[in-house]
Amino acid sequence: MTTERSPRSGLGNRLLEALETRFELFGFELSEERDRMLATLVAALVAVVFLFAGLLSLNIVLVLAFWEQRLLVCVVLAVAYLGVGVGLGLAARSRVRNAAPPFAATLDELRKDAEAFRSRGDTA
Predict the structure, then answer these.
(1) CA-CA distance, 110 to 104, in Å (whole number)?
(2) Distance of CA 100 to CAs 25, 103, 115, Å?
(3) What does the CA dihedral 96, 100, 104, 107 come to, rounded to 10 degrees?
(4) On the chain, which terminus has fewer CB atoms closer than 10 Å, C or N?
(5) So what's the pLDDT on residue 123?
(6) pTM of the entire structure?
(7) From CA 61, how far away is CA 23, in angstroms rounded?
(8) Which domain holds residue 76?
């Protein structure tokens, strides 16, 4: 008794192997994305703490240096900070809107696989 492989079992095995590879790629990309986001978050939080300390020190120095016009100095600083905050907020919003979708490589490979299997099915 010989067991012959049907063409479908070979194609099914290739499909399973391709899916396994794509899931491995997805897992790798997910891990990279998580690590990148965590590192970015930590760096941003540390930067905010140091920037806040620097700005607070600068405010104190400016108010003391211009004590006679302290109200004007406070208003100018507040307007400047609001302007910078709005500008950075708009830049961040633009960056988020224009960012590449996560897992783009995995999706691209899955599309290629689907097209390859479709074209292979047409010739069979």
Answers:
(1) 10
(2) 17, 9, 22
(3) 80
(4) N
(5) 59
(6) 0.51
(7) 57
(8) 7-123
